[in-house]
Design goal:
The chain is of the alpha+beta class. The protein is built from 4 helices and 4 strands, in the order αααββββα.
Length: about 120
């Protein structure tokens, strides 16, 4: 995957960004796998642009998607990691916690964990 990322063009980045915005919940594992690819492309391109502009490198960037109906937040990183977190409103007073990572935890299992909460 690294080789294809290194040749990513601005047009491919723009297309990935558009597709990222169009992917809405509820998610399936197939959608999540697509999000992993898109997030890697978007994050890689943005980090590459920061280096070109000599912007001080910040912490590893990540992208997230929400499933509000299940109180889930999915975090996607450049390395392809998908982490599942609870996503309660701050006003609820309930802390958001990490539930696990894919592939050990699937979206269906994460939803079941949240239904028990």
């Amino acid at each position: 995957m690294k080789k294809s990322l290194s040749t990513l063009t601005k047009a491919q980045y723009t297309k990935a960004k558009l597709e990222w915005k169009q992917l809405k919940s509820p998610f399936s594992m197939q959608y999540i796998n697509r999000c992993v690819i898109l997030a890697s492309q978007i994050i890689f391109f943005e980090e590459k642009e920061k280096l070109k502009q000599e912007v001080k490198k910040q912490d590893t960037k990540r992208l997230s998607k929400y499933e509000a109906q299940h109180n889930l937040r999915l975090i996607f990183t450049l390395s392809g990691t998908v982490s599942f977190y609870s996503a309660f409103p701050k006003s609820s007073g309930i802390a958001n916690t990490k539930l696990g990572e894919a592939p050990e935890l699937t979206i269906a299992k994460a939803r079941k964990l949240m239904n028990k909460a």
